[in-house]
TrEMBL record:
SUPFAM superfamilies: Acyl-CoA N-acyltransferases (Nat) (SSF55729). It comes from Streptomyces alanosinicus. The keyword Secreted does not apply. Residues 18-164 form the N-acetyltransferase domain. This is N-acetyltransferase.
Amino acid sequence: MTTWTIAPEPYDSPVAAALWRAYYTEVSDRWYLLHEGRRTDPAELEREIAATTGAELAPPTGQLLVGRYDGEPAGSAGVRLLDPDTAELTRVFVAGRLRGRGGAALLVGAAEQAALGLGARRLVLDTRGDLTEARALYARLGYTETGPHNDEAYAEHWFRKELVVS
């Protein structure tokens, strides 16, 4: 039986870097294809990947989680504290070939537990309008759409969930 396992991962590990590259390439290409009919310029892709290290996902105020499917790195989710009660959910990603196997919900659930472990009582996130699968996932998992909590350039939808200590 093939199963998912989820565990903390250093934000600067080779596994985390490979998943960040896959995530960023996919969402960047998707945006450019939708808006400009082209893929991301390779030089821009390299600049943006290098500029966003993920250091905010390091303990004690953050956590990066990696999901492995049958032992192979296949997805990620991160949380970082914005204030003592609020954490942001970020970098939720599952490799395309493994979507539809429950990994995203497991990653988000693990991220919720990690946020509670950091002391947060709520999670917030932002996403784009074209990422309809992500918006559907968050709604299915109990996140409610809210007004903006940041001014990120590509954010078009903001969500929030009050966390329950179990």
